[in-house]
Queue: 2 jobs
Job 1
Amino acid sequence: MTVVLQKTALQGKTKRTNTIQLGKMHKRVKQTSRSRDAKLDKYWAQRFSLFSRFNDGIQLDDESWWSVTPEKIAHHIAARFHKSLGGGHLTIVDGFCGVGGNLIQFALYSPHIRVIGCDINLERLMMAKHNAKIYGVEHQCEFILGDFMSIIQSLQCQAIDAIFLSPPWGGVDYGIVEKYSLNQMTPDGYEIVKLCRKYITNDIAFLMPRNTDIDEVRRVLLTKQYPELECEHNMVGTKVKTITMYFGRLINPDSELAESSSQLLNVTNVPDVVTIDDDIEEKDETETSLQVEVIDSEDSW
Ligand SMILES: C[S@@+](CC[C@H](N)C(=O)[O-])C[C@H]1O[C@@H](n2cnc3c(N)ncnc32)[C@H](O)[C@@H]1O
C-alpha cells in the first residue's frame, strides 16, 4: 500500500484541527498541514468507492473501513445473483452482512429481492439497517443478530434462493501467507459452506482473499454431489483485490469453470485521485487543495 499525499500550493504551517466524519464517528485530528495520518487518509479517500451515498450519513465502525465490500464489486455480485437465479422474487441470505455493503446492493438491484442479513455484532447490524435506510431499501431487509453457524439451521424453514458469504479473513494479516487457507478464518470457511449446503442450498457465493489456495478449495469443496465451482477475480483498477467463488446455480454458464481456468474480470474502477479539500474546515488562504492519490490500495480488505 502506498499513499502519496500531494499538497498543492501548500505554504501555510498553521496548526489546524479538522473534524473528519468517519461514518458515525467524529474524529478530531490535530495536525499540521504536513502530518496528516496516512492510514486515515487512505480509507477516507476511498469512502465513495465503499458507499457512493457516503455523504448522506453512512455509518461505519473502525473494522468496517477495511472490510466492507466496495460498492462496485457488491453491485456486480448482486447483478450476477439476479441473472443467475432468473430474476423475479428472490430471498438472499447475507450471512456476514457487516455494515451492509453487499446487503444494500442486493436489495437495490430489484424491489423484488428480500435480503436476510446476519451478523454477530449488534452495533454493525444497526449500522447496516441505518445504511439500508439511506439507500431506501430498509423495507426489503431483515436483520438477524447472532452466530451464522447457529442461524443457518434455523433458516431451513424459509424459502431461500441463495447465500452470500463474506466472513472475516482474520484482519489485514491474511496477506502475509502465500496461500491462504479458508480454515484460517473464524468461523472456518469450509465449515460455513458445508453447513449452508447441508441445511439450505449449494447456491452460494463466497468472497475470499485474493491469495486463497484455490487448489485446496477444489480439493475440499468439489465432490461428486457438488462437482463445479467458478472462481472470479475481482479487480480494482489493474489489481486483483478479491476472489469470488460461485457454486451451484450462481456459476455463470458462459464462463469457464475453475476446473480449467479462472475468469479474470475487471469489475471496478476506483478513481485514482480523490480530492478531499472540502473536508478541511479551516483553510489556509494559500492552500488551494489537498489531494490523496491512492497508488495501490492492496490491503483494503
Ligand atoms: C468482512 S465483514 C462483512 C462485510 C460486508 N460484506 C460488507 O460489505 O459490509 C465480516 C462480518 O462478519 C461478522 N461476523 C464475524 N463472525 C461472525 C459469525 N460467526 N456470524 C455472523 N457474523 C459474523 C463480523 O462482525 C463482520 O461484520
Job 2
Amino acid sequence: MIVASDNHERVSAAQRRSWQQQLSHAIRDPSILCKRLGLDAQWLTGAHTGHGLFEVRVPEAYLSRIAYNDPADPLLRQVLPLGDETLSPAGYVTDPLEEASHQPAKGLIHKYAGRVLLIASPTCAVNCRYCFRRHFPYNENSPSRAQWQDALQYLRDDPSIHEAILSGGDPLAANDRQLAWLVGELEKIPHLKRLRIHTRLPVVIPDRVDSALLDWLGGTRLQKVMVLHINHANEIDQAVIDACTQLKAAGVTLLNQSVLLRGVNDCVETLATLSERLFEAGVLPYYLHVLDPVKGAVHFDVPDDEARTLVTRLRDHLPGFLMPRLVREVPGEASKTPL
Ligand code: SF4
C-alpha cells in the first residue's frame, strides 16, 4: 500500500507525541485532509458540506494508514465527509436507537438487563461518518464528578446490574485521572462484576495505551473487557498489535465489533482478512453490525439480504471462533437482534 508518503516524517514526529497531543493535533479541516491525501478538487465541496453536518476529525496516526491519492481507500471512506451526507431518506433519523428514552440519569443509558452504559466522554479521536451517535446531545450528557452521583446511585440501587460499560464518544478520550476516579467509584459497588469499555482509541491512536491507562485498568478488581471497533484489516498495524498485547498483559479480554459498510468491508475476502488479522492481534471478532439508520449515513448501507449472503459465504473461509455475529440493534428489544 502506498501511504501518504510526503507525510512520513511529520507522521513519525506526531507519533512521538503524547496521545493527548496527537488528539489535539488531529486534522479538523476538510481542505487539509484532502490536501494531505492528494485528493483532487472534486472532493472538496462534498467534504465541506459533510463537515458542516458533522465535523471532520482524523489524527495523524490514523492518516498514516490511508493510501495516498485513493478516494476508495477503506479507511478514508470512514472519515472523509461527503455531500451524500445531506441525503435523508425515510427511516433515517437522528437517534436511530431511541437512546433518549432510556436515560434515567445524566450520562447513563439503561437499555438491557444486567448492564448499563455510561457516557464517559463526549468526544472521539476520530469522527466516523457512519456513527449512530453523530447527532447525540453530548452537551447534555457530559457529567461532572458531582453530576455522576445520580448515575452511581442508580447503579448502587439496582443489584441486578453486574456490568458497567464505558462508552461515549470514546471513553478513552477522557483523561486517566477522571477515568481512574470513575472506575474507583464503580468498583465500590459490590454487585458490579465487570467493566466493559467500548473504544476505538487504541486503534486510532495506539499510544493511548500508556502506563497511566494500564495502571488503573490493570488495578481494578472488576473483570475487564474491551470491545474495540475495527472495520478493516488495514487499521491494524504493528502499533495497534503492540497496544493490544499490552492490554492483554493487563488482564483485559479483547473483542471487536465492526459495522458492515458499503465501500469499506462489504466483501467476503475483506471480512475474512479482518478476522484473521484481529486474531493475530489477540482480538476475537464479536459483532458485525448492520448500519444503524442514522441521518447522514445512508450511502454506507448494505441491504439485509446482501449482508446475510456475505456472512453465509464468510463461514466457508473461517473457523467458527473467528466468525462475528451479524446483528442489528432494534429499539425496544431486550438484546441485539441476530439477522
Ligand atoms: S469512535 Fe465510535 S463513537 Fe466515535 S465517531 Fe467513531 S463510531 Fe462514533
